[in-house]
Amino acid sequence: MTVVVAALYQFVAVDDWADWRSQWLDRAGALGIRGTLLLAQEGINGTIAGTREAIDQMLVALRSHPALTDLSARESIAPAMPFQRLKIKLKREIVTFNQPVAPTERTGTRVAPTEWNALIADPEVKLIDTRNQFEVAIGSFQRAIDPETQTFTEFPDAVERLLDPQRDRKVAMFCTGGIRCEKASAYLLAQGFEQVYQLEGGILNYLATVDPAESAWQGECFVFDERVALQHGLQPGTYQMCRACGRPVDRDLDTCPHCQSSLGDAS
């Protein structure tokens, strides 16, 4: 069975998610869909997986909400179901940032994957990876700055440490599927940065669109499901998840270097 994986999000102000949650939970369960959807007053975010027919029907159900008629989803294929269960949760934020930003009002300029290489080749552009350190460790763009964050809530501190609106006139950023950049770019604009750019659709869109021979991407892209990482063409990568520490580990390694390092530090 071919499994379709759909990553989706939309920032939109909605107050009635609680009324829709049970309907979507029943619908997705009946279709055999697994994955996670997060619902908050600021919108919807999540990744779901199922058969082609099931995903198509679920997207129709989601778009039946009057605020989600334009909901887009980016799809990839998995050799097996990458999720254990189905979860639809009501949250305070669909991606936790703990900053008063409004992506529905103003975000950075979206740059298509086909135009991204030219942008980041500009020496005046400061390129920053908005993801967490363990994600950056297995792949990123050439000359991208690693903010060395453990969670996305640390990103504002990284901005203060690494960037200056008076010095850094052009800032480009990227993340896995685009959602973190919505908040990160809105935050930078609020801090006085004038030219802020974000990779449209994130790394996954870039890997699905750009020819590997022309790619500026190095390594693999971590994803939050049992596939662990993806390569160009959104093909499965070479990592597995360590069941002890939850970090990606090269499949060729017999032991997890993160766990080994922790044991060494403890001794």
From TrEMBL:
InterPro entries: Rhodanese-like_dom (IPR001763), Rhodanese-like_dom_sf (IPR036873), TrhO (IPR020936), TRHO_N (IPR040503)
Domain Rhodanese positions: 121-215
SUPFAM superfamilies tied to this protein: Rhodanese/Cell cycle control phosphatase (SSF52821)
Class of the enzyme per the UniProt entry, highest EC level: oxidoreductase
Record Pfam families: Rhodanese, UPF0176_N
Coiled coil: none
EC number(s) from the headed UniProt entry: 1.14.-.-
Residue ranges of the TM segments: none
Alphabetical UniProt keywords: Oxidoreductase, tRNA processing
Record's catalysed reaction(s): uridine(34) in tRNA + AH2 + O2 = 5-hydroxyuridine(34) in tRNA + A + H2O
Family membership: Belongs to the TrhO family.
Role description: Catalyzes oxygen-dependent 5-hydroxyuridine (ho5U) modification at position 34 in tRNAs.
PANTHER family named among the record's database cross-references: RHODANESE-LIKE DOMAIN-CONTAINING PROTEIN 7-RELATED (PTHR43268:SF3), THIOSULFATE SULFURTRANSFERASE/RHODANESE-LIKE DOMAIN-CONTAINING PROTEIN 2 (PTHR43268)
UniProt protein name: tRNA uridine(34) hydroxylase
